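Sample intake sheet
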Amino acid sequence: MNGAASLADRRVLLIVGGGIAAYKSLELIRLLTGRGISVQCVLTDAGSRFVTPLSLQALSGAAVHTDLFSLSLESEMGHIALSRAADLLVVCPATADLMSAMATGRAHDLATTLLLATDKPVLIAPAMNVRMWEHAATQANLATLMERGIHVVGPEEGVMACNEFGFGRLSEPPAITARIVDLLAPSPRPLAGQRVLVTAGPTREPIDPVRYIANHSSGRQGYAIAEALRDLGARVTLVSGPTNLPSPPGIETRRIETGREMLAACLDTLPVDAAVCAAAVADWHVAAQPSKIKKQAGETAPKLTLEENPDILATLSAPGPQRPRLVVGFAAETDRVLEHAQAKRARKGCDWIVANDVSPGTGIMGGAENEVTLITADGAATWPRAAKTDVATRLAARIADVLSKS
């Protein structure tokens, strides 16, 4: 089932939760109906504080449901019929309260009753304050929902209506639409059955209990690659250094601190079909002190003894029975980028190197965009500067092409 024709008879039950992001549900309806998808809306009481039933009805072309005890519906067990007539239930925005109700099985209004009564797939698009999203209760509810097979899109990072910055922004309607279309008319999964290891983020090498050596890597590129590979059907393990990014849905995420811990986690993940080493691993670690190094008046600065960290990329690239079929490394350089990256590929023994210029002023390390050159045995190709998510999608497609052929 692919293409626009397969969407003509698809039906979505859209549950609009409370929160300022509810206004984006209007754009979502427009995009869905433009693809030929029928949309029926359920508006929660909190959602009605931000959008009106009339607005939803005008865009969907169908009656909007708000009341669990509507006699005209309940004479035909309407809440059961509603929950099962659709091909997909979408909660947008999914507030912390709605997620809690779903996780605990509460059915206190029409929306939560439908979600409890349905036997159809459910997609949630969370939106809330960053502190609410990061709260242990919300993350526990999210984990519970994902374990039950609930699909998740977002949230995104950015400035919110409360003027705080962080993860909690509702994904944009085009991104939610793409996920809905993918669930209603699944795209081919060229990496189905394949296992992929991705490393991301920096490492922190402790100097003493309160200080460490690190770098400016945000982990965004590695996380985006992990998600792009997941979307192509791969079973992905993400080994992540310290970042501010939430664990991506549908991906096993192992969080570490040091380069030695990252190597151990990578080896524990083997065997895999492919490994993408996008992490910015520190080249050295310090012979850490057991207690805080104190500054003493008149004393010279302490000398740090640096010891070489294990080479994760070279270890994974070494010939042997557990070597992945494809090993991809990254080379973050500040000068003679291609020369250094090509030498690194030869030295490490990996199949591909993704080279990028992280000189001051490029905004690449820690930023949202990247400009890379992919170096393989066949030569080098520079891709235009683009969002890191777009770079990830392009790289994942190349990986899928190689693995499917081999």
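Comment: The chain has a mean pLDDT of 88. The domain at 4-184 is CATH 3.40.50.1950 (Rossmann fold).
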